[in-house]
Design goal:
Elements: E1 2-8, H1 10-13, H2 29-39, E2 43-47, H3 50-58, E3 67-69, E4 80-83, E5 92-94, H4 96-109, H5 124-130, H6 139-151, H7 157-167, E6 175-176, E7 181-184, E8 191-194, H8 195-198
Parallel strand pairs: 1-2, 3-4
Antiparallel strand pairs: 4-5, 6-7, 7-8
């Protein structure tokens, strides 16, 4: 079982991330968490979300046969084996190209649940039309389409990059366990964000 830590590195990128969530946890939530942690092997890294831990594990050496079990559609931005117990009859495989396509789609549409806007006025159908013809392989080619969509709305590549970075669920290549740094994606070169800075 994987849990989200108290702090979140995405709020360093976009301070309003998940800022629309009001109120406390459901009744008996913390008692349930304690009971699960007492009975099962669990992991939590302050600064990362449970989604990120799943993405990192699912793409790490020795976990090739693991299955990501979640109801969260965001995990489909991570290549590997997936299973949604509510929607799927059996596990499915998400290829790297499919994961990239889902990620850039999320970058365009945003996610109201997580409170990041994406590109104004772009929903799933419009995003599909924008990315039509891109097979998900060359990030350079796909990114050009994304940036052009943002510029058509009087926004910049920097605006698009913020959305792409909060939309991206981390994989093994996006996190340095030794230095405890998130490696933020960017075609012009990655940037590193120390988790200790997230907790300040």
């Amino acid at each position: 079982m994987l849990f989200t830590g108290p702090h979140n590195f995405r709020k360093k990128i976009l301070p309003t991330y998940k800022g629309n969530r009001k109120g406390g946890k459901p009744l008996a939530y913390w008692a349930t968490v304690r009971a699960v942690k007492e009975r099962f092997k669990c992991d939590e890294v302050d600064g990362l979300e449970a989604d990120d831990l799943m993405g990192i594990l699912a793409t790490s050496e020795g976990h090739e046969d693991s299955i990501v079990v979640t109801l969260d559609k965001d995990l489909r931005t991570v290549p590997g084996r997936h299973f949604n117990p509510v929607k799927d009859a059996k596990p499915c495989i998400i290829t790297p190209s499919q994961a990239n396509l889902k990620w850039f789609t999320q970058t365009l549409t945003g996610d109201t649940t997580d409170n990041y806007a994406g590109c104004p006025g772009i929903g799933p159908k419009r995003a599909e039309a924008i990315l039509k013809g891109w097979d998900g392989r060359s990030l350079t080619a796909g990114w050009k389409m994304v940036v052009e969509a943002y510029k058509s709305k009087k926004l910049t590549e920097a605006d698009a990059l913020v959305q792409a970075r909060v939309a991206k669920i981390l994989t093994r290549d996006d996190y340095d366990k030794e230095s405890k740094e998130v490696i933020l994606w960017g075609l012009k070169g990655p940037q590193r964000l120390k988790l200790e800075d997230v907790m300040k």
